[in-house]
Amino acid sequence: MNDTDTQKSIDILNKIMEVELAGVVRYTHYSLMVFGYNRIPIVSWLKDNATEGLAHAHKAGELVTLLGGHPSLKIGTLLETEKHDIGDILRESLEHEKTALSGYYDLLNITEGKSVMLEEYARDMIVQEELHLDEVNKMLRQPGSIAPFDQ
Q1: Do the Cβ atoms of 88 and 34 come closer than 8 Å?
Q2: Per the domain annotation, does 96 fall within a domain?
Q3: What span, in angstroms and rounded, lies between the C-alpha atoms of 62 and 44?
Q4: Rounded to an integer, what distance in angstroms lies between the CA atom of residue 64 and that of residue 140?
Q5: Count of structural domains within the chain
Q6: CA–CA separation, 100 vs 94, rounded Å?
Q7: Domain containing residue 87: CATH number
Q8: Whole-number Å distance between alpha carbons of 51 and 100
Q9: Secondary structure of residue 130 in the 3-state scheme
């Protein structure tokens, strides 16, 4: 990769790190706001997402330093909607996952054919994020419906 592509990759990785850290905060908050009969499995799922987001942020930061960059201290956008219904939380989660996915596609576009390591990292993360989107999408479907949830 040339210097321009390296700097673009660092910038994208920092943005990914910020988005993933925002997800940690978001999912932690959501886990505290779930009430009702299904609280325990939903809280567990949200906590797992927070833990995974932290691992994703850490990996992006490691790649920033590998490329000679400085990891961001910022956290992505945090929006408190004051909506804590499970459906609202899941719809917000869906938007968050789409934002994260977009960052990984941006990285793939910059690195494709230029860095096997970054390209494979981006591809792996795209698979993981698309599976997360599918998981949330299925949770938003009406019981018995096989048609994908359409926002």
Answers
A1: no
A2: yes
A3: 27
A4: 35
A5: 1
A6: 10
A7: 1.20.1260.10
A8: 15
A9: helix
In this structure, are residues 10 and 91 in contact, taking their beta carbons and an 8 Å threshold? no
Amino acid at site 150: D
- Reference 100, options 41, 13, 10, 42; nearest CA is 13
Residue 78's region, left for phi above 0, alpha for psi from -120 to 50, else beta, is: beta
pLDDT value at position 151? Answer: 58
Closest CA to 129 of 52, 58, 64, 72: 52
> What does the block give as tokens for 88?
């609202």
* Boundaries of domain holding 32: 3-140
Tokens found for residue 11? 């910038």
Q: Tokens 């968050």, residue?
A: 96
Quick one: pLDDT at residue 84?
A: 81
6 has pLDDT over 90: yes
Closest C-alpha among 97, 89, 79 to residue 38: 89
In percent, how much of the chain has pLDDT > 70?
Answer: 99
